[in-house]
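YM 10:42: guanylate cyclase sequence, as discussed on the call
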Amino acid sequence: MVGKLSKKATLLLGITEEELFENIGNYFVEFVGSFGYGDVLALLGRQLRDFLNGLDNLHEYIKFSYPRIRAPSYFCCEETETGLVLLYRSKRKGLSYYTIGQLKSVAEKLYQLDLKIKVMKEEIIADSTEVSFKLEFDNRPADKRMTALIREEARLPAVSSALLYDIFPFLIIFGENMIAQTIGRSLMQIMPDLFGKKITDFFEMVRPMIPFTYKLILSARNNVFEILAIDRNPDAEDTIHSEIVQTFVSRDK
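YM 10:58: structure's back
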């Protein structure tokens, strides 16, 4: 249906399909802003890079209102003072330029930035569309007060590991080898075999849509991670197969 409508619209308006979807994405930001979501968008970060890193968290928040939403996933990499590379993955197809329109509109309206976007690569993998966008914008730190804030946080008292274990009963501590060195007391009751084993043998990454590796986890520390327990005994009647949303705590070997 969307494909047929877009073809008719491009003929009527005399523009390309890419221009049509980019304009729709631009208008969508204005549309959601009229319903109060503009304030939510503005809270995602002081800079555009912070906004992009928080997009997955925003979609998790929106799920409370729209539980059937099929949200895309975003991941930033290769960041420099002149921009970054944004990896976009979605179960829906044909929305690359729609996304470009949204990003340009947010950059202009919320951050007063002239954002240039180039599609570096687009491919279909399994049932997902994966796109690499090259974003060019002024990505230099805009607020030097953050340095003072970091110094102030450095003076805060240390928190004991015992307190963290009490706060996070499903905690997992692992190193570069991905072996679970410590797990929370509740997780120990549910999955006692996890301790001392590779967590990739017990869980698969759901969000963000990136390979489940130590290096990539460290590079996406601002994201909320969602992992899914792998069904290791499908014939058992009481097999546990549940989603666990938890902040990763990592340390060196």
